[in-house]
Amino acid sequence: MNPPNPGDWQRSSPFALLFFAGNILRAVARAMLQGALIPLIALVPLVWDDPGALRILLLSFGAVLVLPFVAGALQWACFRFRIAEDRLLIRKGVLRKAALDLPHERVQGINVRRSPVDRLFGLVTVTLDTSGSVQAEGKLPSIKTEVADWLQRSVTAIRPVVGGATADEGGSGATGASRSADAEGARSATGPGSVLLQLGPADMVRIGLASRNFIFVAALIGVLTDLLQPGDFLDPILEAVEAGVDSAASAFTGLGALAQVGLAAAVVAAIAGVALLLTVTAAFLRHHNFTLQHDGGRFRSRAGLLTQREVVVEAPKIQQLTVSQGLVLRWLRQYRLYALPAAAVSPDAGRVSALDVPDVLEVPLLDGRLVDDLRAGVFAPEATAIPVLPGNSGFERVSPHYIRALALRYGLVLAVVFGTLLVLAWAGVFARTSTVLFWWAASIPAAALAAWQRWRRQGYAYDRDGLASRSGFLGNEVKAFLLRKVQSATVSQSPLQRRKGLATLRVQLACGRITVPYIDRHVACALRDYILYRVESSRRRWH
User: Fold this and answer.
1) Which residues in 414-439 are b (16+ Cβ under 10 Å) and which e?
2) Contacts of residue 149, Cβ cutoff 8 Å, sequence gap at least 6
3) Alpha helices in 121-241, H assignment, sequence order
4) Count of domains in the chain?
5) Is 316 within a domain?
6) How far apart are the C-alpha atoms of 119 and 112, rounded to whole Å?
7) In a domain, 439, yes or no
8) CB atoms < 10 A from the CB of 216, how many?
9) Cα separation of 100 and 92, whole Å?
10) What is the pLDDT of residues 478-521, one digit of tens each?
11) Among the three residues 242, 269, 286, which one is the final residue of a domain in this structure?
12) What pTM, to 2 d.p., does this model score?
């Protein structure tokens, strides 16, 4: 393979036009969903009987679909990039020109995607994640595979990674010598070039069953099933099957009580089956043939059925490990893990639709042994005593006064909700006053039970190098990080905390905020001061 000349400016493949047009279409669709879609839908009945107005509306809609491709072609024509020895240079923009100078040493992850079109023509889309921006700064759409390989080697050559830390991140000689055994143990557990995990078809079923969207999809199917009844807005379509529906309803009412219960259970099972099929299909599309590798201090994941994704991140640049376990994963004795680099979006917060955020290294299904191995590979030789498994006995619970604070918080929410319903009931708009009062009284012990359950899940653990926070309601989630990567640490007190000598510790990382609530004030202040000391005294990089 002949490497590209570092002095040459290069173009992306013409198929990158689809990438640029797709970005514009997504922006247009987002704008329509935020406010323009409903007026357009309301406009259709008004112009339906006017051929001229309807033709103008259809032409406008066609222009909305065609113009993004024209604008995408212009963006592709103005897009250039050059791979220098120590940096990536990008020039883009039609009317407003933009120049990006991205040094290789700032790159904290290289993500590769292969859409079906890219795979057909031997192309890839490369995204370079940096520590200085929430968005994925460097993106090269639809470039040749050999160019992407050359870029990866150029980035690797600038800052090679050995084991869990780079050569320029080492601390003092004494510290490095005292921890050499731990580092060697971590490297042996996750040796260079080793395949740590491969997921098969049976694992896709487990992922679909444990998906957080399973209950939502089942509920959505139930709502749609309820909507698809005669007499609704789909009357013209459903008239043909109205007779069959009526006969089925008559047969159902003629059954005995036991048969009706069995039929209702069969309907619920069918809805759950369809929801499971959809979530399993989504798992196959996203995580098919998932492979996790450890290669010289870098973690690399590959997955995807139609669009193949490859995420590469260096262990020293991982800011936080998040290990979660829902009800289904607890039953399966499995976990889900996220390795968040700087400026990544937390999986709990969801994606920021207006930004092109970088991909996160996600392991959708793994056991406890591999979780500990990954913790050692990411944190070693530091934070060797920090637990990341939710069931670890090393976590300390927060003060029981946290139950009272949560109960008061839930009580205020219930008061607002049921108070509004009570006013509507007095006005004769909604239900009866006695019904609202009954459900209000029934919700109070439920709120207290929820507060107690949240307190049971809340905990924290720390050692001289790291800290972990555990939280959850039905499931568990652990967020672990190294102290030297903290950007700020603050201690705050509510009126209740001041009376009880408690405080809340908030730690800000480059990938988000972690809160440890209702711990002893002296412990919170001591932890804050020690964290800031470790940040100031550390000679290692935080990214």
Assistant:
1) beeebeebbeebeeeeeeeeeebeee
2) 1
3) 145-158, 173-178, 180-189, 201-209, 214-227, 235-238
4) 3
5) no
6) 12
7) yes
8) 12
9) 9
10) 999 999 999 999 999 999 999 999 999 999 998 889 999 999 99
11) 286
12) 0.75
Note down the domain range covering 448.
396-537
Question: 3-state DSSP call for residue 307?
Answer: coil
Last residue of a domain, one of 267, 286, 305: 286
CB-CB contact of 468 with 323 (8 Å): no
Under DSSP, the state recorded for 474 is S
Q: Assess contact for 192 and 296: CB atoms under 8 A.
A: yes
What's the rounded Cα separation, in Å, for the pair 62 and 54?
A: 12
Residue whose tokens read 């992922």? 207
The token pair that represents 441 in the structure block: 């009284």
Q: What is the DSSP string of 9-44?
A: -B---TTHHHHHHHHHHHHHHHHIIIIIHHHHHHHH
Residue 474 CB coordination number (10 Å): 10
Residues 112, 233, single domain; the answer is no
Q: Is residue 360 a contact partner of residue 311, using CB atoms and an 8 Å limit?
A: yes
Radius of gyration for the chain, computed over Cα atoms and rounded to the nearest angstrom: 28
Which stretches within 391-479 are classed as H helix? 401-426, 433-457
Give the C-alpha separation, 7 to 9, whole Å. Answer: 7
Torsion sign across C-alpha atoms 14, 16, 20, 26: positive
In sequence order, what are the beta bridge partners of 311? 111, 301
- pLDDT, tens digit, for every residue of 398-447? 999 999 999 999 999 999 988 888 888 887 776 678 888 888 898 999 99
Cis geometry, peptide bond prior to residue 390 (ω within 30 degrees of 0): no
Q: Is residue 379 part of a domain?
A: no
Q: Are residues 136 and 228 located together in one domain of the fold?
A: no
In whole angstroms, what is the distance from residue 534 CA to residue 526 CA?
Answer: 12
- Which run of H or E residues covers position 63? helix 51-77
Lowest-pLDDT choice from 58-67, 179-188, 474-483? 179-188
**3-class DSSP state for residue 55?**
helix
The enclosing domain of 423 has a CATH number of 2.30.29
Element (H, E) at 501: none
The Cα diameter of the chain in Å comes to: 84
* Alpha carbons 467 and 534: distance in angstroms, whole number: 12
Place of tokens 């039953």: 331
Residues 124 and 225 in one domain: no
Same domain, residue pair 154 and 217? no
